[in-house]
User: What shape does this take?
Amino acid sequence: MDGDNKSAKPKPAVEKAAEQTGVVVSDDALLFDDSPEKEQRAELAAAIATLKGDLEAQTKTRDALLAKSSLTMEQARQLTDEHIDHLHRYNDIKDAGQMLFGKLAELKDKTVKEIYKDYNVDIED
Assistant: This one.
């Protein structure tokens, strides 16, 4: 019986990974290839299949979060980009402030820590 799958042998991991990843590997290449690359190809195909599964799971999680937030993908990207821009600006301003405190400490022959204390600025700020 052609349609009977009961007699079919389970597919090796390499073949499953090849099916999942779309990587085409001929049966002859798998059967007669004793090279070390065969094992590497099998590991890579399995890794690709795992990564594709992870990507699908992360995509589903992302889509569920977007659905909860009522944001479109474009709006979420724009919000993220704006947040990153704000972080860059904050870091640039903080760096400039630290340089000024350093120069002031140098001019007053004090440590930066003392300058922070003089201006009631927390050293962690």
User: Anything to note?
Assistant: Residues 11-70 form one domain. The helical segments are 13-21, 27-32, 36-69, 73-108, 112-118. The chain has two domains: 11-70, 72-125.
